[in-house]
Design goal:
- By secondary structure, the protein is of the alpha/beta class.
- The protein has two domains: 140 residues, Aspartate Aminotransferase, domain 1, CATH 3.90.1150.10; 256 residues, Aspartate Aminotransferase, domain 2 (3-Layer(aba) Sandwich).
- The chain contains 14 helices and 17 strands.
- Helix 3 crosses helix 10, helix 4 packs parallel to helix 5 and helix 11 runs parallel beside helix 14.
- It is globular.
- The chain binds ligand 7TS.
- Ligand 7TS binds next to helix 4.
């Protein structure tokens, strides 16, 4: 048996925790043990303050007014775009489109890239472990165009083999869309290899980075994918904002997705012309305070260092895996060798929803259910799992509280 992995040198989790006001809350009289960051992470005070300052001092609509406030709001919004561009290393801000989040970003690509191009019999290749947000938009566009959705299988560990991806690619494959990290299993996918294989077959690749961006360095240019989608609320930012990063030449060739203000150059009843990138894809008043908050979240992550967050979470993953496996009747679903800090599990004799309720009564917040990945549940022949997930503020005592609550649940149901 291995000893607990050593604390990461210089990583002071108690200091990090002081940045998150919500972590001092009591839940049912117990200290909050928040283990559902994969669903949505908490926000540090700096993000809350940035949004608050924007709303208090700088708000006006963007890209329209000549007056000072509107220019301030526009500046903050466009600076946020530049901040996000740098964070994921997109080539230019023309490649950075603000969306409501990952879901909207994928729908945008399905409808604006996929719908005009896909023909009957063309194939859209997914993997078996995708979140519904990276399945349903493709099913909708398949329905509209006669294209076919296929899914590369995974093994019992939740691993998608590159050789299987290669075997599923063929001359009819137009789009490959896959997660970089599975939200239900934690599997880290070999996306760089997948991109290479898909490009060799002439297919375009979208990576769903919702669960990757908060936990590891993401470099859009180095990944060389065509589209990359992620959400601010899983990376310490606000809800209702996220990004589609897209290869400029492809974005240029795509028609607008939604029509309205801000995305046009001129409108007449005879002919409307469209704005340049990225505005062509941002119809209507955007989520300005959300973008400001997202930029503050990038600042926050960079103030700690994503590589430090990664190392800290990997340590917790190792500790939690070892401790949880000692709970009798507990099975971890998702045992890929390369995992992010997500642990899905079942406990014999206790339905995940009942388990979630008992854990909640102990102040421990975990997600229970199908995690918007019903094909994953079907594959493992289970209705649901409980899922603990970690973030920069998670600590070893959170794992101990979880394990103690799991023992309690076993007692209740024995
Ligand atoms: N893709 C993945 C891999 C996700 O984990 C999620 C959200 C989405 C897409 C959708 O992101 P949204 O911000 O547009 O909603 N995942 C989860 C989860 O695991 N629990 O709640 C939401």
């Amino acid at each position: 048996m291995s000893a607990s992995p050593k604390a990461i040198a210089g990583y002071d989790v108690e200091r990090v925790r002081r940045d998150f006001p919500i972590l001092t809350r009591l839940i049912h009289g117990k200290p909050l043990v928040f283990l559902d960051s994969a669903a949505s992470s908490q926000r540090p005070a700096s993000v809350i303050a940035a949004v608050d300052e924007y709303e208090t001092l700088h708000h006006a609509n963007v890209h329209r007014g000549v007056y000072q406030l509107s220019q301030e709001a526009t500046d903050l919004f466009e600076r946020a775009r530049e901040r996000v561009r740098g964070f994921v290393n997109a080539r230019s801000t023309r490649e950075v489109i603000f969306t409501r989040g990952t879901t909207e970003a994928i729908n945008l690509v399905a409808q604006s890239f996929g719908r005009p191009r896909l023909k009957a019999g063309d194939e859209i290749l997914l993997t078996h472990l995708e979140h519904h947000a990276n399945i349903v938009p493709w099913q909708l566009v398949a329905e509209q165009t006669g294209a076919v959705v296929k899914a590369v299988p995974m093994d019992r560990r939740g691993v998608v083999d590159v050789a299987d991806v290669a075997a599923y690619l063929n001359e009819r494959t137009r789009i490959v869309a896959c997660a970089q990290v599975s939200n239900a299993l934690g599997t880290v996918l070999p996306v760089r290899e997948i991109v290479k294989l898909a490009h060799a077959r002439g297919a375009v690749v979208l990576i769903d980075g919702a669960q990757a961006v908060p936990h590891q360095k993401v470099d859009f240019k180095a990944l060389d994918c065509d589209f990359y989608a992620f959400s601010a609320h899983k990376m310490y930012g606000p809800t209702g904002i996220g990004c589609l990063i897209g290869r400029e030449s492809l974005l240029e060739s795509m028609p607008p997705w939604q029509g309205g203000g801000d995305m046009i150059l001129t409108v007449s009843f005879a002919k409307t012309t469209f704005n340049t990138l990225p505005f062509k894809f941002e119809a209507g008043t955007p989520n300005i305070s959300g973008a400001v908050g997202m930029a503050a979240a990038v600042d926050y992550i960079e103030s700690i260092g994503i590589e430090h967050i990664h190392a800290h979470e990997q340590r917790l993953l190792a500790i939690a895996t070892e401790k949880m496996l000692k709970v009798p009747g507990l099975t971890i679903i998702g045992t890929a060798p390369d995992k992010a800090s997500v642990i899905s599990f079942t406990l014999d004799g206790v339905h995940p929803h009942d388990l979630g309720t008992i854990l909640d009564s102990e102040g421990v917040a975990v997600r229970t259910g199908h995690h918007c990945a019903m094909p994953v549940m079907e594959f493992f022949d289970i209705p649901a799992t409980a899922r603990a997930s970690f973030a920069c503020y998670s600590r070893e005592s959170d794992i101990d509280a979880l394990v103690a609550a799991l023992h309690k649940a076993r007692e209740v149901f024995s």
